[in-house]
Write a structure and sequence with these properties.
Distance between the termini: 34 Å
Radius of gyration: 21 Å
Order of helices and strands: HEEEHHHHHEEHHHHHHEEEHHHH
Number of domains: 2
CATH architecture of the largest domain: Orthogonal Bundle
Strand order of the largest sheet: 1-2-3
CATH superfamily of the largest domain: Cytochrome-c3 Hydrogenase, chain B
CATH topology of the largest domain: Cytochrome-c3 Hydrogenase, chain B
Number of strands: 8
Shape: globular
Helix content: 40-55%
Length: 386
């Protein structure tokens, strides 16, 4: 038996010793992370192995915790939105969108049709960029280096479009209460149409390179199984839950902005394994392309932002909104006492619930399978730690 225990966090230390105490003779307890080549972000896993077979995986969080929810309580209703770009930074537009919707619900603000369409366009471009990064990084995790460069080639085109309108490439800070910060750049429509034509051919390359590869399929199929019942029990959302047959797309179930007027499919697979989670995200990229195509030539004229007061005060009460990020349901819960700052803010991030199912999915598999399972969960650690 191997004890690897060295931390200043008493609570984590207690958990670690408890984990070691439950091992049997011949088991190995190893640390993966918090800084490890096979992990994205700062995640620490305490893994109990019997040979190469996983007996238990215990995530230890908090290495990148910044107390974002507490910070938001000292920021105004305009300022706190920007902090959420630093949580799931691959869904920053969508995080901002969820916060803006919650503030607008409290103020009973009706935004313009132009702002609604712009928001959805930005959301779907963000989803595409996020899934592209996921595809490249996930394939690299299981041993395929080439897809990483292909994915970033297409992602750069989206980042260039974003930068031209928003002035940023990652933490956008573009969606605000009442609409969006700036109007679209004059080149926006043409560049998006060029990207659509370009990416339609490239996504087929993704399938040629990875999806049909027999080695890749053998690493993914029947690995990390999560049943529909377990996905619901663990509170999983997004592609992780939809790959297990759970219908949970907020854009379909609780349409916001113009999603209720658009034609797109909620992608659901029933396999529940790593390959099913892979297929869901691949098909979601095609659905995002379809949504963008429906809107890009139908952006209404008019104002991009509804006039609001310089200092916003939400009435006393509780307000909740939710949106569908690239990783699942993102919820924003605000308690207001009628002042210029929230009394309490709580974020429901998809990554935390999805990560909670990791141990259940990994038990009984080999240590090499853990990387594939984590890759198809698409974890962004700041979204979990907050």
């Amino acid at each position: 038996m191997l004890k690897i225990l060295n931390t200043n966090h008493s609570q984590l230390t207690t958990h670690m010793f408890e984990e070691v105490a439950t091992t049997t003779e011949g088991d190995l307890v190893i640390n993966v992370g918090p800084q490890h080549p096979s992990t994205h972000g700062v995640l620490h896993l305490l893994i109990t192995l019997s040979g190469e077979t996983i007996k238990n995986v215990e995530p230890h969080l908090g290495y990148i915790h910044r107390s974002i929810e507490k910070m938001c309580e000292s920021l105004s209703y305009r300022q706190f939105i920007y902090v959420t770009s630093r949580m799931d930074y691959l869904s920053s537009h969508i995080n901002n969108h969820g916060c803006a919707l919650c503030v607008e619900k409290g103020l009973q603000i009706e935004i313009t049709p132009r702002a609604r369409v712009i928001r959805v366009l930005m959301d779907e471009l963000t989803r595409l960029a996020s899934h592209q990064l996921w595809w490249g990084a996930m394939a690299m995790d299981v041993g395929a280096l080439t897809p990483f460069f292909h994915a970033f080639r297409e992602r750069e085109a989206i980042n260039d479009i974003m930068e031209e309108t928003c002035g940023a490439r990652l933490t956008m800070n573009y969606i605000v209460p009442g609409g969006v910060m700036f109007d679209l750049h004059p080149n926006f429509q043409n560049r998006v149409k060029e990207f659509i034509r370009f990416f339609k051919t490239k996504i087929d390359e993704y399938d040629d390179l990875v999806t049909g590869n027999i080695i890749f399929q053998s690493r993914m199929k029947r690995v990390g199984y999560l049943s529909k019942e377990d996905a619901i029990s663990y509170g999983c959302t997004g592609p992780t839950a939809r790959a297990s047959g759970v219908s949970c797309d907020i854009r379909k179930l609780y349409p916001y902005e113009v999603y209720g007027n658009l034609k797109f499919d909620e992608i659901i697979e029933t396999g529940g394994d790593c390959f099913s989670r892979y297929l869901v995200r691949m098909q979601e990229m095609r659905q995002s392309l379809s949504i963008i195509e429906q809107l890009i030539d139908n952006i209404p004229d008019g104002e991009f932002q509804t006039k609001t007061k310089a200092v916003l005060k939400l009435p006393k009460g509780e307000f909740y909104s939710r949106v569908e990020t690239a990783r699942g349901e993102f919820g924003v819960y605000i308690i207001s006492e009628g002042g210029t700052t929230p009394y309490r803010i709580k974020f429901r991030s998809p990554g935390f619930s999805n990560l909670s199912a990791l141990n259940h999915m990994a038990k009984g598999h080999k240590i090499g399978d853990l990387v594939a399972i984590m890759g198809t969960l698409d974890l962004v650690i700041p979204d979990i730690d907050r």
